[in-house]
Write a structure and sequence with these properties.
Largest sheet: 7 strands, antiparallel
Low-confidence stretches: none
Mean pLDDT: 89
Strand content: 5-15%
Number of strands: 7
Helix content: 40-55%
Length: 392
């Protein structure tokens, strides 16, 4: 293939990626697509995105083909909570500070006079060898840096050998970063708008916190992804469903804005009449999405209405049973109950982890979908990592 034709195909691919990014609403799904697209354009083995948060670069998303090929790969690495100061001491901090792309052929052979250094701890802990690296600032508007993207270990398309990133890689990555930055900022705004809706519920209900909904939504997405992989669902469909499920799960209790403070903020157990009123938050939440315009509305309605239904039909509001309960509702039910039990609340102490897991297993086939509980248990290291990442 001649170079001119190769470049035309790459440009066409970038336009296709741009269209795909415009269809994504959720921030985590956006980061996943941006990173996978950048790696595809540069034939890179791995990569990480950091977003600016509270004056630091916070680890936001990572991918690594080498690890994905390992049978014992565990996705808990995706939820590591790492923060890097924005200064010139690290490669990421240097790029965020200087707002310029940095292309390094071998991070273990940096010039001794370089202002930044490479931290080998992650490589050592993961038994990985980072060689070539392309670090790109994510910039919007008037030179505002919203994060950085690191693409790691470019590979020769024929031999698979790790090689330096080329100038052409840098040019394509620079162009793509402009598109990605705008898409990420749009997704961040969508996430912020959802969290503000959650904040409204939080003002009313002390149990409903931003950290709680971040955990529940992340648990839910990981349970769904594992189920989908087990059932050979296509990667495209998994990506689409994960995008809408995360948003819907974050809004699972939004109907509580319609419940009185006397009930929501009662520090003791509710009496029978109060409990019946509390149960109406499911239908109140579902009614917010009664005019269904897209899949986000449909899944959000399913989740808000059905996350207190039970597999045995003894739940509410409609007493649905088994697979008559929408799958999204069955998944969020597991995520929500787990997080409620293992978290401290104003009206109760946190349960011991072993007691929570025992309860979840005992309720398989009665309160919960047994297959989904099995999946939940199989990815528990990831669940635990999510809980750590989004602690109160």
């Amino acid at each position: 293939m001649d170079m001119q034709r190769f470049n035309v195909e790459k440009i066409q691919k970038q336009f296709e990626i741009t269209e795909k990014l415009n269809r994504i609403s959720d921030l985590d799904s956006m980061l996943e697509q941006v990173l996978s697209s950048a790696r595809m354009l540069t034939n890179a083995d791995a990569g990480t995105i950091y977003l600016v948060e509270d004056g630091c670069l916070r680890f936001a998303y990572t991918q690594n083909d080498t690890f994905m090929k390992k049978i014992n790969f565990n996705k808990k690495q995706v939820y590591l909570d790492i923060k890097i100061p924005i200064n010139t001491n690290s490669i990421a901090g240097y790029v965020a500070t200087c707002r310029k792309i940095l292309r390094i052929d071998d991070v273990y052979k940096l010039d001794e006079h370089s202002p930044f250094s490479f931290n080998r701890q992650v490589d050592e802990s993961l038994n990985y060898r980072t060689v070539s690296m392309l670090t790109i600032p994510l910039i919007i508007g008037d030179e505002k840096v919203i994060g950085i993207m690191q693409i790691i270990n470019s590979k020769d398309s024929e031999t698979g050998k790790v090689i330096p990133f080329s100038l052409e890689n840098e040019l394509f990555a620079s162009f793509f970063a402009n598109i990605a930055s705008a898409a990420i900022e749009k997704a961040k705004m969508t996430r912020e708008m959802i969290l503000r809706m959650v904040k409204m519920a939080e003002l009313r209900d002390p149990k409903e916190t931003g950290s709680h909904v971040q955990r529940v939504s992340s648990y839910s997405v990981e349970i769904y992804r594992k189920w989908a992989e087990n059932h050979n669902v296509s990667k495209i469909e998994i990506g689409k469903k994960s995008d809408v499920l995360r948003i819907a799960a974050m809004l699972h209790d939004i109907g509580k804005v319609g419940i009185s403070d006397a009930i929501l903020k009662k520090p003791a157990r509710l009496n029978e009449d109060e409990y019946e009123i509390m149960k109406t938050h499911t239908t109140l939440g579902g009614d917010l999405f009664i005019n269904i315009f897209n899949e986000v509305d449909q899944i959000s309605r399913d989740v808000a209405t059905c996350h207190h239904e039970r597999w045995d039909g003894k739940g509410y509001p409609n007493g649905l049973a088994g697979e008559n309960i929408p799958q999204a509702g069955r998944i969020v039910a597991i995520a929500d109950v787990y997080d409620a039990l293992i978290s401290k609340r104003v009206y109760k102490d946190a349960w011991a982890e072993e007691d929570v897991l025992k309860y979840m297993r005992e309720q398989a086939g009665s309160q919960f979908d047994a297959e989904l509980i099995e999946i939940f248990a199989s990815i528990y290291d990831v669940i635990r990592a999510i809980r750590s990442r989004y602690s109160e």
